[in-house]
Amino acid sequence: MFLRILILAVYLWIPGCLWATSNLALKLRVLNEVLLFVREKYVEEVDPSKLMDGAIEGMLERLDPHSEYQSPEERARMTEKLRGDYEGIGIAFEIRNGILTVISPIEGGPSYKLGIKAGDQIVKIDGKSAIGIKEREVFERLRGPKGTKVHVSIRRAGVDSLLEFTIVRDKIPIRSVPYAYILRPGVGYVRITRFGSRTGEELEAALDSLEAEGMEKLILDLRSNPGGLFTAAIDVAEKFLPSGSIVTYTKGRDPEVDEEYVAEAEPDEVHPYYPIIVLINHASASASEIVSGALQDWDRALIAGQRSFGKGLVQHQFALSDGGALLLT
């Protein structure tokens, strides 16, 4: 059964619109013809679903570098990443030459507690070979509900036989504020690596702790922070700005997206007016630029480092019928 694309031409009796909609209908018809020719005549059998994904991605590439289509799987992983936790065995991994390799166990997680180490190679999962495993399969086979078990066989350098571990899955936090400490007397250092749903909460705890230790100056490190949730950037900025300060604003072709975002923290929620230095580099983007820009505009912080990435754009997320999402500038 051939995949068909439903073509609907809407004719609006406004000058120019009739031609535009007719031309669009023709292009959709051509796309349908190309798809059918590829299905029937291409030298190898192809997956029509992947072809359509490619067509969607190609269309969005014509817009800007940041508008994108997320498959249902990609959307789920992104949601998980921004939410701030997941349930699994707690490792950072990489597939090297087809072998699932542990980059590092997450401190405090189940793998860490069992003694799994950086460099360990997971060659079997529940008795089945993991050689040649794909990233998608890693998530499917190692992640699962808290309290469930998974058995892994590990090859470790210097050990002749495989090491066997039965791991009880647990909730694994994905921290966005991994480091916060007193650098020298009176000077605090806080590192933010991403902007997720818990970033504001984590930063608040870090600042309270450092202030209790006598912090009088702050270094806020946003280097190589690619951004994340727009709302998290507002939450971070308003910890240092008085209520009513404009953090940022959006403006687009659709007036409905034109909006000002204002700091709304109560006076007792704003942290003391101590000197702040914000560190950025070429890889500081999106939400990182919103925070650093707002603090600079209100003379609340000195920005140091390199020119940032320069992503002065915001993407709105639209849910799609296949479970995926459209991120549109």
What is the structure about, briefly put?
With 329 residues, this protein is of the alpha+beta class.
How does the SSE layout of this entry go?
Elements: H1 17-41, H2 48-61, E1 68-70, H3 72-83, E2 85-88, E3 91-96, E4 99-105, H4 110-114, E5 121-125, E6 128-129, H5 135-142, E7 149-155, E8 163-168, E9 170-173, E10 179-184, E11 187-191, H6 199-212, E12 217-221, H7 230-237, E13 246-250, E14 259-262, E15 276-280, H8 287-297, E16 302-305, E17 316-319, E18 325-328
Parallel strand pairs: 11-12, 12-15, 15-16
Antiparallel strand pairs: 1-18, 2-9, 3-4, 4-5, 5-6, 5-7, 7-8, 10-11, 13-14, 17-18
Helix pairs in contact: 7-8
> In percent, how helical is the residue content?
25-40%
Low-pLDDT runs of 5+ residues are: 1-17
What distance lies between the first and last C-alpha atoms, to the nearest angstrom? 36 Å
Mean pLDDT across all residues, rounded?
A: 87
The second-level CATH architecture of the largest domain is Alpha-Beta Complex
Structural class: alpha+beta
Number of domains: 3
The H/E string reads HHEHEEEHEEHEEEEEHEHEEEHEEE
Find the count of extended strands (DSSP E, 2+ residues).
18
Radius of gyration: 25 Å
* Count, helices: 8
How would you describe the overall organization of this protein?
The radius of gyration is 25 Å and the shape is flat. Strand 13 (246-250) and strand 14 (259-262) form a beta hairpin. Helix 7 runs parallel beside helix 8 (287-297). With 329 residues, it is α+β, with helices and mostly antiparallel strands. The two termini are 36 Å apart. It has helices at residues 17-41, 48-61, 72-83, 110-114, 135-142, 199-212, 230-237, 287-297, and strands spanning 68-70, 85-88, 91-96, 99-105, 121-125, 128-129, 149-155, 163-168, 170-173, 179-184, 187-191, 217-221, 246-250, 259-262, 276-280, 302-305, 316-319, 325-328. The protein folds into 3 domains: 17-74, no CATH class; 85-173, Roll (Pdz3 Domain); 179-316, 2-enoyl-CoA Hydratase, Chain A, domain 1, CATH 3.90.226.10. Strands 3, 4, 5, 6, 7 and 8 form a 6-stranded antiparallel sheet that branches. It is built from 8 helices and 18 strands.
